Amino acid sequence: MQTETIFNSLRSKFFSETARKKIETIFVFIAITSFVLHLLLIALVHLNLLQINTTSHLLNNPIAAIYTPFSFILVYEVYLLIFYLPKSTTIYIGKQYEIITLIVIRRVFKDLSKLELSSDWFVTKNDIQFSYDLIATLLLFFMIFVFYRLNDKKDGRLEKKEGLSLDILRFIKIKNLVAFSLIPIFLVLSVYTFGRLIYISFFSLSDLVNSITDVNKIFFADFFTILILVDVLLLLFSFLHTDKFNAVIRNSGYIISTILIKLSFGIEGILNTILILVAVLFGVAILAIHNRFEKYSVSKKYS
């Protein structure tokens, strides 16, 4: 009984709609404040009122200031991913796709400050990467739309306890416990990453540090590694309530998709963009085939 009370207390603090709205308000405030502070920092540097020894492009152009609030929006998206984990597996995976899309968009804003507008657009490395990312953003946005359209609404109804078997109720409780365990990991990684990001972006004195460290890899490479382990764990626990072939393949496909996203952090250029697109496309295809398989199984059963 005491365990159930603690469980419900944690749930109300982190995973209720009231908690989500409060956290959303906090992150919006932080994003706006960080944007204004970043713009102020750029202005002080340009007016020579502040001397910072850095090779970062984040202080060269006011447009680059958009990068900072987007970083906090991304952190909020990670919270939403954890928030939807107990409620819907498909929405939980969809949030992973939203995160990687926002990372691409954030990279677009960062690279805007490095564009070299000339007739050699398709020769300059930064300009080519910018073009790839623009196209990738449109394709990812469309694929996420298709993914949510394909979402089986029954998956989102797991939160409604009426009429569910004991095995499914137990699986929901396991997903809640997994989500709770992700909260401290998320907080520790966020604090560590914020400090490291500030140092690398504004106070690094070495060109070497800036050349070998991609700030897009900070936090998310480690976090997606954790998500792969979580996905495998959920796949194993899912056998407690279903052994349907299409459900197993769907969940296994989601793991493959997450692994591809994780691998994308280790490469750069066009290969990075292609791997991200393939990861999301694979997830969309898996869900589409799963839904067709489900409808075929139902029609065959009652034919």
Relevant terms:
303 residues, mainly alpha, globular
Task: Kindly describe this structure.
The chain has 303 residues and is mainly alpha-helical. It has one domain (2-296). Helix content is 75%, strand content 0%. Helix 3 runs antiparallel to helix 6.
Helix content: over 70%
C-alpha end-to-end distance: 47 Å
H/E series: HHHHHHHHHH
* Unreliable stretches covering 5 or more consecutive residues: 207-213
Give the number of domains: 1
- Based on secondary structure, the structural category is mainly alpha
How much of the sequence lies in strands comes to under 5%
Q: Which word captures the global form?
A: globular
Largest sheet: none
| Total number of beta strands | 0
Mean pLDDT: 80
Radius of gyration over all CA atoms, rounded: 22 Å
Q: Output the number of helix runs.
A: 10
In a nutshell, what does this entry contain?
With 303 residues, the protein is mostly helical. The protein has ten helices and no strands.
Element layout with pairings:
Elements: H1 2-14, H2 17-46, H3 67-84, H4 89-112, H5 125-150, H6 166-203, H7 207-212, H8 220-238, H9 245-264, H10 269-301
